[in-house]
Q: What sequence folds into this?
């Protein structure tokens, strides 16, 4: 799945398949300006910053069990969001510090370090990547991903795929080749 925020005409948090199909709103009320998003892949939670409402909130992948983690003026200066173990990590753009927020007790916030110029944060850890033995976009015997001549996108599961073409090309009737 692909998760993303939008604060155009109607602010929301959404999810869709990697090929853009099955687009679903998972948060569309009491939300104004969601600017950063992080996923807890193990427990299937979506966290986001809303800098207008000055809050950090969470829902499950279906948009249920919504909770506010922390709220207050300091949120309007946050950018980027990452989750690892019991903590959320973000950047305070006002003083360029990395903040650690206890995701179960939002009042426990600690500044960890200062950076010169940061707008995003990521945590890289082996446990955050799900192991998949095989998937629909693996290269075929001719080296084409998922048998697609240009782009292979995973669909509703790791066993399904959709072929797409680069700009200027049209997908052929076989659903795999681009012309």
A:
């Amino acid at each position: 799945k692909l998760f993303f925020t939008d604060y155009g005409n109607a602010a929301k948090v959404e999810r869709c398949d990697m090929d853009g199909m099955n687009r679903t709103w998972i948060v569309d009320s009491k939300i104004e300006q969601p600017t950063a998003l992080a996923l807890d892949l193990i427990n299937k939670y979506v966290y986001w910053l809303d800098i207008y409402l000055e809050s950090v909130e969470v829902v499950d992948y279906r948009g249920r069990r919504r909770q506010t983690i922390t709220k207050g003026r300091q949120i309007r200066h946050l950018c980027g969001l990452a989750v690892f173990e019991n903590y959320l990590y973000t950047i305070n753009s006002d003083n360029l510090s990395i903040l650690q927020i206890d995701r179960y007790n939002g009042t426990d916030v600690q500044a960890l370090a200062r950076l010169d110029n940061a707008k995003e944060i990521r945590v890289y850890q082996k446990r955050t990547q799900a192991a998949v033995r095989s998937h629909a976009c693996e290269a075929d015997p001719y080296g084409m991903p998922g048998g697609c001549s240009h782009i292979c996108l995973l669909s509703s599961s790791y066993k399904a795929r959709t072929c797409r073409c680069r700009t200027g090309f049209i997908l052929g009737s076989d659903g795999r080749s681009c012309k």
